[in-house]
Write a structure and sequence with these properties.
- With 127 residues, this protein is mainly β.
- Helices cover 0% and strands 49% of the residues.
- It is built from no helices and eleven strands.
- It has strands spanning 3-7, 10-13, 18-25, 34-39, 46-51, 58-60, 68-73, 78-83, 92-99, 114-117, 121-126.
- Strands 2, 4, 5, 6, 9, 10 and 11 form a seven-stranded mixed β-sheet that branches.
- The chain starts with a strand and ends with a strand.
């Protein structure tokens, strides 16, 4: 079992920056790809960014590409999402998620390939 706990959310003004963190438990953390999802009221869940097990490959949604950076520190069992130039459209509950501990060959962008989820952290953007 993999347990994930997000932190770092809060209120930020438009144009500002924020860094989200996700702490994971379990010795197999480094065996799973990781992703950040977000869900805003009235909108579908969106995969924001993802990173491979080794950290060598990343994926970004078009809506955040160029202003977001996903990274992981396997030694600390922690996942990060750095976001800049935030706007009201970025306001949502952000969840971190982990894929299977066994290799399945699915691309990072395959949303259905993520099995473990955190409770989420709220990001609010003022304008």
């Amino acid at each position: 079992q993999v347990q994930l706990v997000e932190s770092g959310g809060g209120l930020v003004q438009a144009g500002g920056s924020l860094r989200l963190s996700c702490a994971a438990s379990g010795r197999s953390f480094n065996r799973s790809k990781l992703g950040w999802f977000r869900r805003a009221p009235g909108k579908d869940r969106e995969l924001v960014a993802a990173i491979s097990r080794s950290g060598g490959s990343t994926y970004y949604a078009d809506s955040v590409k160029g202003r977001s950076t996903i990274s992981r520190d396997n030694a600390k069992n922690t996942l990060y999402l750095q976001m800049t130039s935030l706007n009201p459209e970025d306001a949502a509950v952000y969840h971190c998620a982990a894929g299977s501990l066994s290799y399945d060959g699915s691309p990072l962008s395959t949303e259905s390939s993520y099995y473990y989820w955190g409770q989420g952290t709220q990001v609010t953007v003022s304008s």
